[in-house]
Amino acid sequence: MLRVGLTGGIGSGKSTIASLLVMRGVPVIDTDEIARALTEPGQECYDEIVRIFGDAILDGNRRIDRERLRECVFDNADERHRLEAILHPRIRVIVQDRLAAIEAPYVVVVVPLLIESGFTDLVDRVLVVDTLENVQIQRTAARSGLSEPEIRKIMSAQASRAQRLQLANDVIENNGDRKQLEAEVERMHQWYLSLATTTNKNK
Fold it and tell me: Of the given ranges (103-112, 127-136, 158-167, 175-184), which has the lowest mean pLDDT?
């Protein structure tokens, strides 16, 4: 089975692309969803994160407020690394288990920090969603209400556009409208089906 890692900066459109692939019957493993589940109350990661970062990151229902947690770690690289050390090994194990259980021509693993987290060894190809910086900022501000300085702070903690493109096997440009994106996703979908068929024939 062909394993594709889907990545891109904040506001690049990863979730939209993932949903379009699901509509085409492609299995998608979303590491952000896994991270959310791991940080729910009662989970081991929840207790560890609260012990390290304190009750200030909790909302009124004592759930982890992702915005507050992000504020804690994005201003401090050491704290960010502590959080990643809690989450990334557990996410990796879950991704590996899910990959082993899937039967399909190809599977997509959505990893926002694919390059930064060192998850590239889990996939055969890296698919980068490439978006202009000003478009990223506009989209993120529209959906989250974050200010431009806040968005730029998040972007500065991620791999640069150039770094992502350097490691990309495949690229989807997402600077246009929905129709253009759907055409790009369909093109890539057919390409991966073709690659998967070729790979299977060669085995």
Answer: 158-167
Handedness of CA 39, 43, 44, 48 (dihedral sign): positive
The count of other CB atoms within 10 Å of the CB of residue 29 is: 23
Quick one: which of 7, 63, 53 has its CA closest to 32? 7
Q: Give the containing element (helix H, strand E) for 193.
A: helix 178-202
Secondary structure (DSSP) of 57-104: GB-TTS-B-HHHHHHHHHT-HHHHHHHHHHHHHHHHHHHHHHHHH--S
C-alpha–C-alpha distance, residues 72 and 53, integer Å: 8
At 92-114, the pLDDT tens digits run 999 999 999 999 999 999 988 77
What gap in Å lies between CA 19 and CA 97, rounded to an integer? 22
Nearest Cα residue to 161 out of 175, 144, 181, 145? 175
In Å, how far from its chain's centre is CA 124? 16
Note whether 88 and 177 are within 8 A (CB).
no
What is d(CA 165, CA 52) in angstroms, rounded to the nearest whole number?
35
Let me know: does 189 contact 24? Beta carbons within 8 Å. yes
Residue 67 clears pLDDT 70, i.e. is over it = yes
Range of weakest confidence among 55-64, 88-97, 149-158, 173-182: 149-158
- What distance lies between CA 14 and its chain's CA centroid? 7
First and final C-alpha spacing in the chain: 11
